[in-house]
Structure formats: structure tokens, C-alpha cells
Amino acid sequence: MSIGTNIRRLREDKKLTQEKLAEKLGVTFQAVSSWERDEYLPETANLLKLAEVFDVPASAILEDKRGTFKTKETIYNWEHMKTYVKTTASALGMHNAYKAVDYAVEAHEGQKRKKSEIPYIYHPLNMACHALSMGIREDEIIAAILLHDVVEDCGKTVEELPVNDGAKELVKLMTKDKSKGSHNPETLEKYYGELATNPKAALIKCIDRCNNITTMSWGLSRDGIYRYIEETEKYFPELLRVVKETPEYTSASWLLKYHIESMLDIYKRLM
Fold first, then answer.
1. pLDDT digits (tens, 9 = 90+) for 167-217
2. Which of 39-48, 139-148, 183-192, 209-218 has the highest mean pLDDT?
3. Tens digit of pLDDT for each residue in 78-87?
4. Contact 14, 54 (CB under 8 A)
């Protein structure tokens, strides 16, 4: 595909007319038309603006793509994961996790993952399956994973959660105080500092980050991805250290570190 064809395809994917795109770029619609007809190439400044508007790397505009890969927003069915987690919790006597499954499903009902039609519950269920697959069998941890966003995102309180005090404390640590803004440096320092005091909370947060970085290519803007990479590189080495130095989580720490760092490296290369 030519550069002009790429620009037209990306513009149409965003449901923008040539006029609307031109307005966002601060150019004439004739300029956009000439690019799409391959009569002229956009200057570097306009190329960067195009990448920002389309929320893609500049290479996506410049490359001669001979084919389009099919992508997946999900790999597993959330209802199947729910059955697996609930069955496993029952078989292993994980009473808190068993109660947390249905509570989380109900609390997140109607919510979607960012920029998608994926039911939000897919995220905590995926995390729970991730933990179980690494051999984590602690009832409080699986319960807290399932409930880790219900206070922050669903208007619930820690006190009303149907789990024991240990699981409630983990959910409390996972809940970020957004009163000063999610990206406020003081908020982040306090949040990650408290997580690092509890190996179980650090483990849950690392699993959470593994899941989130695999979906940020479509769930976040380019600025959001840059910010997420910077935040991960600043705070997660300490969390991974805490997890690694806890004997029962040492093996899990290897997988988590590999997942996080390899995904970050892939994003950096593509961006």
C-alpha cells in the first residue's frame, strides 16, 4: 500500500472526512486530498500530527503494507474463565475467592474495557486465571484479584466486600486515591510505596500490570502508552523485587518480570 492509501484507510477507520482531518491538522482539505492521491508527501511535522490523530506509530503511515493481520481483543471467553475460577475455588476450599467471583461479576455488570466492547469482568477473571496458572493458591490473593477494582470503579466500599479482613486489606492497597488525579506524582509515590510493603499486594499489582500492558495498544492513546511505560519502569522494579524476595512467589516473579519487560521492549521498538 502507498502512503496515500494508508492515510485514506486510517482516516476512514477514524470515520473522519478529509475536511475534518484537515481541520485537526491545521491544513487545507486539498492538502489531505493530494496526500491521499500520492501527489505530494506530508512534511515531517504533518506526518507526526497524522500519527497522533490516527493514534498509530508513524511507521503505520509510511510502510508499504502488503497485507493486514487479524487481531484479537480477547483470547478466552469470560464466562468459561468464571466457571474455571469458581470450580477451582470450590475444589480447593477457597471460600473467599468463591464468594468474590459472583460479587465481582455483579459489581462490574455493564462496564466495558477502555475503547472496546469487552465486558470489564474479563480483566479480573483473566488475572485470577493467570495467578492460578502460576501455582498461586492463596484464597485471599485470588479473592483480592477478583475484587481489586470494585471499590475504585464500582462505588463499593472495602467494608461491604464479602471476604475476610486479609482480602479486604489487599483490595484497599490496590485501590488508588484519585482525589488529586490518577497521575499526580505524590499520589503515585504513596500508592506504589504502600503496595511495596505487602508482598501479596505487590504480586497482585504485577499481575494486573501484565494484563494491562497486553491491551494498552488499543486501550490507550499514544500519550497514554508513553506515560504507562514510564510509570512501569519507575515503580515496578521495586514491586518485582519484593515479589522475588518472597520465597513462595519467586517462580512467579520470573514469569512476571519476563512478561512485563518483554512487552515494554516490544512497544518501544514499535513506537
1. 999 999 999 988 877 788 999 999 999 999 999 999 999 999 999 999 887
2. 139-148
3. 999 999 999 9
4. yes
Cβ proximity of 58 and 45 under 8 Å: no
Q: Which residues of 225-253 are buried (b: 16+ CB within 10 A; e: fewer)?
A: beebbeebeebbeebbebbbeeeebeebb
Query: 0.85 cut: is pTM over it?
Result: no
- Phi-psi region for residue 26, left (φ > 0), alpha (ψ -120 to 50) or beta? left
| Count of CB atoms situated within 10 Å of the CB of 209 | 22
Cell of 218: 488499543
Q: Which amino acid does the sequence have at 36?
A: E
- Using a 10 angstrom Cβ sphere, with 0-12 exposed, 13-18 middle and 19 or more buried, the burial of residue 258 is exposed
- Report all structural domains of the chain as residue ranges with CATH numbers, in order of start: 3-62 (1.10.260.40), 78-270 (1.10.3210.10)
Q: Are 243 and 249 in contact (CB under 8 A)?
A: yes
Which amino acid is residue 215, in one-letter code? Answer: T
